[in-house]
Write the structure tokens for this entry.
Amino acid sequence: MSRISAVLFDFDGTLQEGDKDELYARLNEISSRLKLGLTEEEVRQIGLSTPDYREMRAQMVLRGNELNPGRNLTEEEFQRINVEVSGTFDDRFYLSEGTIETLQFLRNGNYSVGLVTTRGGNSLPRLLERHGIVKYFGKAVVCRDNCKDRKPNPEPLHLGLSLLQASPSEAVYVGDSQRDDIGAAKNAGVVSVLKSPEGPIVGNGMPSPDYHIRNLLELQRILNTI
């Protein structure tokens, strides 16, 4: 019998795909509405430079003010437009292979299931409803608005564990970012599972996952071996 009783998931790139397509479309729409003067390639490069939306916002505001001398666009103005266009490009999102099957397997096996993501609270509830998976998590949902620190800091995982009333030794965290997700799991003392089409990066200061899966359907095999 597995010693694992709780499974925490990252969201984008783990349970949901298409986040980059939606992000670039949304950022370009914001740039267009605010007449920032950024090209689509510049927006894409800003999006690639950091996984942190707030840092992307800051960079776009700075670049927009550079391209428009005398203008003093604020991050608050940028965020107002972001809220207005949020949801416009939700058709870019789709569930990862095996998401429903895996969540149902965990429910049938009486595992406690939680979500720990850096996605914001503005879009997350809407997307969980859109995909029909909100029922699997209950109140055990942690987004970037709930924590001061971000992954790989363990704070988000600690909060997720507390919501599930689980200890690190009996929990698994599944994510697609070796630096942030696996790093957070290591720092929190949780068993780490990297979901990636390729194998994990070795060296370069990257934390090494305890397990690697290429799709979510392989998670059942991992849980049966722990």
